[in-house]
Structure formats: structure tokens, C-alpha cells
Write a structure and sequence with these properties.
A hairpin with a 3-residue loop joins strand 4 and strand 5. Helix content is 36%, strand content 13%. The relative contact order is 0.14. With 407 residues, the chain is α/β, with parallel strands linked by helices. Strands 1, 2, 3, 6, 7, 8, 9 and 10 form an eight-stranded mixed beta sheet that branches. It has a two-stranded antiparallel sheet with strand order 4-5. The chain folds into two domains: 251 residues, Rossmann fold (3-Layer(aba) Sandwich), CATH 3.40.50; 111 residues, no CATH class. The longest helix is centred in the C-terminal third of the chain and has 20 residues.
Length: 407
């Protein structure tokens, strides 16, 4: 079975790349990421799990906006030294696929609501242009551009961002599906224990095959759905076997912020974060409400509880207990700040989810380790593409590539 060569842009900690490698249909040529903990994590994963001996060189720690250096090489006090992307691609006599997704905060509906300018001034609105320029330089058969559903409605300059993306790729010789609403998928449909909607934009190079739009409809309507799961995986099925752990807090340890009841187990990153007594009591009340079947705490009552506990009002719904019998709500990078919207369903534990639990809800394997602080780990998990979804995309894309290459 033919293997296809790919490079990964905005690689993060490697969720998308890991899924592609799990499929067995691809060979990684290079990856680009500018955040160091994510780079270190991906390098370690490639070396320990995929036997990539030169991962330190292949995973490039660099700013994709500095394109000339990205392609030709650089020496930099912050980013070190590299021969650049051209060297890796040329050694392979070109590539077949480019994967990745520019940071999504500027496209997310939540981000626009929080920002006073609706994210219109955010430079991340236009990082897709650098992705586009890499595609233009290396001319792969296909590309995969992953992002949040908010991209479908984002208009930072008054023009829909999807129009700019479509026009950009058309300018360099690629077609994407006419109606991008067809490109929206939910990870929960593909065995990920989490409701996580994403837009998966696949582009095909003009001239690679006849009737590109038919091929794209075939991918979204027939190939990818073949990899859907028969049933949705629940939170309890995903994390219920992990040892229980409880945060400890008392007056003596208030300033130490380090006392935890850590279970003896073989899982990395499975320890509770610090919680104060007020939060632990709130978590317990809300989890018991669900366990009892009463479910009295709707948004209004949760806001009242917040006001009672904290002494001030909040315009947003600050707490959420994960339902044991359903897929999780969308895991987000905000977890690195607090886990109040990701409270464990077991009232006896009175805590938010651990890094390992968050990783499982994102479908990361237990041997996938994270390099950096606890905050780094939560952030990279929340920003990642679930590897299980990525594997399904990779398998479907491999079938599409097989057909295109035959032509």
C-alpha cells in the first residue's frame, strides 16, 4: 500500500500528525510549530513512539510568518538553527499532502464575543496566508486545513474569511468544496469521547484529477463517513477506570498550593490541580445534583450559586459538570487557567479533570506524554486535533489519494 509524504504546519503537540501516522498511510517529512513546549512534546513523541531519530531537526521550532528563513534556513537566538523546509522537502523529491490548522482563537465565536473589537485586529486572522504560501511553494496533491466552526461566520474585514481563504487557494491553483458547511464534522461521531465540531477543509490541486468538486463531495459524503463509530463514547467509558484522586486543602497549606492526594498508578499526568475549599464545595454540590437525578442547577441557579460563593455576579455560566453518560463538552485551551467548566462527575472527588483525563477525552493514547508545565499540557491538549479523528481523516484521505494518483 502506497505511503504518502506530508508536512505539518501549526503542528502544536502533534494530535493531527499522530493520527496520520497511526493510519499507516503516511510518512512525516517535517513539522513547524513556534511554541517550545509543543515542539518538545512532538519531538519526544516522534522519537519514542514512531522511531523518528532526527525529530529534533524535522520538527522545526520557528515562526511561520518569517517565510524566507522558514524555506531557506535560519540562525536565531530564540529559535536556534535549521536548514529550512526546502531542504527536507527536496530530499524527498516533493510531498503529497500538507496538513495543519492556523490558531483558531481569532475565528472562534467565543473569542469574538470576549474581544472588544470582535478579533478584527488579531493578526491570527491572517495566518492562513502563510499556510497558503507553503502550499503554493510545494504544490502537494492535497491539503487538509482544520479549524473551528466559527470560521464559517468570521468577517474580520467585513468580508467572510471563508471567501478570502477560497480565493487565496484558487489563486495558487486549488479547489475546496463549494459549500463549506459540508466540511463540518463532530469528533464524537468518530469515536472521540467529546462533542467537538470542527471544519475540515480539503483542497485538491487543479489538474490532479477530473471534476474536483465531485471528488470532494465523494470524500465528505462517502469516504469519511465510512469511519464513523457505531456508538458514541461517554466520559465514564473514557476516564472511569483511572484511579480516584482528591485535592487536599487546609488553612496550613493555603499558601503552599501543592498538597494533593496523588494515586499510585502507571499513568502520567494523573494528579489533581490545586482547588480551594470554596471551589471544592461548589464542585461537590453540582456533581451531587446530577448524581441524585434532580438536576436542579440550571444556568440561572448556577449563577446564583456563584454569587453566593464568590460574593459577586457573573454574566457568564462559570461551572459545568461533565455528564458521565454522554460525550464530554468541547475540551478547550482555557483549561490551563482553570477547570471550572470541566468538573469530574464523581462528587466524592470534588475536582476538575486532570491532564490525563483531558488527554483521554481528546483521544490521546496513555503513552502520549506532554513536555512542560501542567498549564502547558492543558493548553496543548485543548488546542489539539483529537488523534482518533485525525486517523479517520487520514484513512479517508488515503483512499481519495489512491483514486487521484491512479488517474
Amino acid at each position: 500500500m502506497k505511503q504518502y509524504k506530508f508536512i505539518d504546519l501549526f503542528a502544536g503537540c502533534g494530535g493531527l500528525e499522530d493520527g496520520f501516522l497511526q493510519s499507516g498511510r503516511y510518512k512525516d517529512v517535517a513539522a513547524v510549530e513556534w511554541l517550545k513546549p509543543q515542539v518538545d512534546t512532538l519531538r519526544q513523541r516522534l522519537k519514542t513512539s514512531w522511531g523518528v531519530k532526527d525529530a529534533d531537526e524535522r520538527v522545526m521550532h520557528f515562526d511561520i510568518q518569517r517565510e524566507e528563513e522558514l524555506f531557506g534556513g535560519w540562525k536565531d537566538p530564540e529559535f536556534g538553527e535549521s536548514v529550512g523546509l526546502d531542504d527536507f522537502v527536496n530530499k524527498e523529491n516533493g510531498i503529497d499532502v500538507i496538513i495543519g490548522g492556523p490558531p483558531c482563537q481569532a475565528y472562534s465565536v467565543a473569542g469574538r464575543v470576549r474581544d472588544e473589537n470582535g478579533m478584527r485586529d488579531d493578526y491570527r486572522n491572517y495566518l492562513f496566508e502563510h499556510y497558503l504560501n507553503v502550499v503554493d511553494r510545494y504544490k502537494p496533491v492535497l491539503f487538509v486545513f482544520e479549524n473551528v466552526p466559527g470560521i464559517l461566520s468570521a468577517t474580520p474585514t467585513g468580508v467572510p474569511i471563508t471567501d478570502l481563504i477560497r480565493q487565496g487557494f484558487e489563486r495558487v491553483g486549488y479547489e475546496i468544496i463549494e459549500d463549506l458547511r459540508n466540511a463540518k464534522v463532530n469528533a464524537a461521531d468518530y469515536g472521540v469521547p467529546q462533542n467537538r465540531e470542527r471544519v475540515i477543509i480539503v483542497g485538491i490541486k487543479r489538474g490532479a484529477c477530473e471534476d474536483i468538486q465531485s471528488k470532494l463531495h465523494y470524500f465528505y459524503e462517502e469516504l469519511l463517513p465510512q469511519y464513523r463509530s457505531e456508538k458514541k463514547v461517554t466520559v465514564k467509558e473514557a476516564i472511569g477506570d483511572l484511579p480516584a484522586c482528591v485535592p487536599l486543602w487546609d488553612e496550613e497549606n493555603q499558601k503552599k498550593r501543592k498538597s494533593h492526594s496523588v494515586p499510585k498508578c502507571n499513568y502520567t499526568w494523573h494528579k489533581p490541580r490545586f482547588h480551594n475549599l470554596r471551589d471544592m464545595d461548589t464542585f461537590k454540590i453540582l456533581a451531587e445534583d446530577i448524581e441524585s437525578g434532580k438536576r436542579e442547577y440550571d444556568s440561572r441557579k448556577i449563577s446564583e450559586l456563584y454569587e453566593e460563593k464568590v460574593g459577586s455576579k457573573s454574566p457568564i455560566h462559570r461551572y459545568h459538570v461533565l455528564d458521565a453518560d454522554l460525550p464530554s463538552t468541547t475540551i478547550i485551551a482555557h483549561l490551563y487557567k482553570d477547570g471550572n467548566r470541566f468538573i469530574h462527575y464523581d462528587s466524592k472527588q470534588s475536582r476538575s479533570i486532570t491532564v490525563r483525563e483531558a488527554a483521554r477525552l481528546q483521544s490521546f493514547a496513555d503513552d502520549f506524554d506532554f513536555v512542560g508545565s501542567q498549564g502547558n499540557a492543558y493548553q496543548m491538549i485543548g488546542n489539539a486535533v483529537p488523534p482518533r479523528l485525525a486517523k479517520c481523516i487520514a484513512l479517508a484521505l488515503g483512499c481519495l489519494l489512491d483514486e487521484i494518483v491512479k488517474e
